[in-house]
Amino acid sequence: MRRWFLRSLLFILVLGGIIEWWLRKELQTPYYGAPTPRIFVEIPRGASSERISWLLQEAGVLHDRIPFMLYLRWTGKGTRLKAGEYLFDSPRTPPQVAEKIEQGEVVYQAVTIPEGLTAEETLAAIAGSGVVPLPELEQASRHTEWIHDLSSEASSLEGYLFPETYRISRHASAESILRMMVDRFREVFNRLQGGRPIPQGLTIHEVVTLASMVEKEAKISSERNLVASVLTNRLRIGMPLACDPTVIYALKLAGKYDGNIRKPDLRINSPYNTYARPGLPPGPIANPGEDSLRAVLAPVDTAYLYFVARNDGTHEFSKDLKSHERAVTRFQRTPGRHDGR
Question: Each residue of 159-207: pLDDT tens digit?
């Protein structure tokens, strides 16, 4: 009986040693057995560690799921694995695989949308990145109800697709992408507003419209407040806004813009022609960034009514027509060209 007990104990010790050696070897040996040089593994939301282990083994990321599962249990990482799509393209040890998923290194494509693009240009930029086809984006852009809690006047998403760099998954839908941009606009706008009343008795839609004009007019951030002050001063006294970018927008809508704006263009019959029509245009002419929104929400107090480009990216601001005409003569000398406001 004693001899049987000793043999059994020895067998258990040897078996335990073999298992320990095998586990150490599995946990310390990088492995990649996928059938292709790169493989994507989708970890579903709420998946158990056992389910995740099966998915990784079936994909060829793990040699064996058991060491991975034991590692998750020993370290407590099993409850910290994040859902999403992961790219594997090189050998990794099970702890390295677990760390990648714990850190949430999900596959995203970065898509940068600059400030001042129109909605049409924004959709084209997203489609150009290869994430979603343009027709699907155009269809999704009709969901103006996404912004109606802020602006019931909005007849399109123009002005509300916030410009920023977005991390987009390979399987994102057109609706999820545009909804994310609208939600980001709402987040930034609410933060900038900070619960304060909208200035000048404007609606939110009018604030965004003004900010879009500021975005198109101001080339440098430090001038956005000044441009906003000119526009709000003109609005207050009933003076035409005479904003070239709104005319350009009207020409684009009519398919007549060739990259230049001429004096005859200022007579185009359009509600966006702020030379011929008083007040604000019916909606935004581009998607404004944070600085332009801030410039309109917290306007600086000036007496400026005019500005003209200095041809170096900055503008000369004037309080009266005589000073403005001198500035136009000084900075804009091309005969026959439309210069200054």
Answer: 999 999 999 988 889 999 999 999 999 999 999 998 778 877 899 999 9
CATH top-level class for 28-102? Answer: alpha beta
pLDDT tens for each residue of 36-47: 999 999 999 889
DSSP code, position 274: T
Buried b (16+ CB within 10 A) or exposed e, 183-222: ebbbebbeebbeeeeeeeebebbbbbbbbbbbbbbbeeee
* pTM of the predicted protein model: 0.78
Please give the pLDDT value at position 337: 46
Q: Could you state, in order of their start, the residue ranges of all structural domains in the chain?
A: 28-102, 109-193, 199-331
Question: 294 or 333: whose pLDDT is higher?
Answer: 294
The CA-based angle 282-156-133, given to 5 degrees, is 145
Cβ contacts of residue 91 below 8 Å, gap of 6+? Answer: 30, 31, 32
Phi-psi region of 151 (alpha: psi -120 to 50; beta: other; left: phi over 0): beta
How far apart CA 206 and CA 216 sit, in angstroms, is 15
Cα 222 to the center of its chain, rounded Å: 23
Bridge partners (DSSP) of residue 108 are none
Phi, psi of 99 (to 5 degrees): -65, -40
Lookup: tokens for 33: 């057995």
pLDDT of residue 162: 98
Query: What is the token pair recorded at 11?
Result: 């067998």
Q: How far apart are CA 19 and CA 169, in angstroms?
A: 40
Taking the alpha carbons of 322, 327, 328, 333 in that order, is the dihedral positive or negative?
positive
